[in-house]
Amino acid sequence: MSKLHEVFAAAKAENRAALIGYLPAGFPSVDGAIDALRAMVENGVDMVELGLPYSDPLIDGPTIQAASERALEAGITTKLVLATVEAVAASGAPTLVMTYWSPIERYGVERFATDLAAAGGVGVITPDLTPEEAGPWIDATDAAGLDRVFLVAPSSTEERIAVVTGITTGFVYAASLMGVTGVQSVSAAAPALVARTRPHTSLPVAVGLGVTTAAQAADIAQYADGVIVGSAFVRLLLDAATPAEGVAAVGRLAADLAAGVRRH
């Protein structure tokens, strides 16, 4: 079992879903992101999804775009992202990177996989990499021992779900809606998407996009193996008067969400 699978198995043994928290690296600063991510873990987040800021995002809504732009303007680089992975992974929480394909390609496919594994990362979510173009990435992640996470969406056909789950190794990311991150509600299509995905794979299925409250987390935990929260954490840091206040707010939200996934 990979570290991701161990976390999902432990959550299942507790009759709950795993909680996955997202923040872009370098926001509000390199150290600030590390502090916030550690606060998430200390308050019940089971695994961390670290965004690699990119200048041309496809599924990022305005909240994450604003944070990523600040990180890019402050000089975030792939090497600093990897350094952030190393710092956060030291907390003990499995740490993934969520990144578009272009930064991986620019850095070097094999080099990225090797360096991420060396930093303690356990996997990568690639929202814009299609299965048809994933051959080199499959080879690189297999060689480095990294899990690969691909996405399914409400528009995915049965055939497409089968293809996506066939190359996924960590967990299946079920995007609850068609559109960008940052919406305030989870699509009503999410339960059906999870139900359609399960016959194709024994992997855990985690739902993201639109999760902002403990009540939503509790609802998703009734039918999914994982709950992914991103924009809600980012918004707290954007709105905070000081970095310390932002970290404290992130910790409180993480605790609320952790309680949510534990409701029966």
Structure description:
- The protein is α/β, with parallel strands linked by helices.
- It contains 12 helices and 9 strands.
- It has a 9-stranded parallel beta sheet.
- α10 links the parallel β8 and β9.
- It is globular.
- The model is unreliable at 178-185 (pLDDT under 50).
Q: What can be said about this structure in brief?
A:
The chain contains 12 helices and 9 strands.
What is the topological layout?
Layout: H1 3-13, E1 18-24, H2 30-42, E2 47-51, H3 62-73, H4 78-89, E3 95-98, H5 101-107, H6 109-118, E4 123-125, H7 135-144, E5 147-149, E6 151-152, H8 158-167, E7 172-175, H9 190-197, E8 205-208, H10 214-220, E9 226-229, H11 231-239, H12 243-260
Our Rg estimate from Cα atoms comes to 17 Å
Low-confidence stretches: 178-185
> Under the CATH scheme, which architecture would be assigned?
Alpha-Beta Barrel
Strand order of the largest sheet: 5-4-3-2-1-9-8-7-6
Keywords for this structure?
264 residues; alpha/beta; TIM Barrel; nine-stranded parallel β-sheet; 9 strands; 48% helix; globular
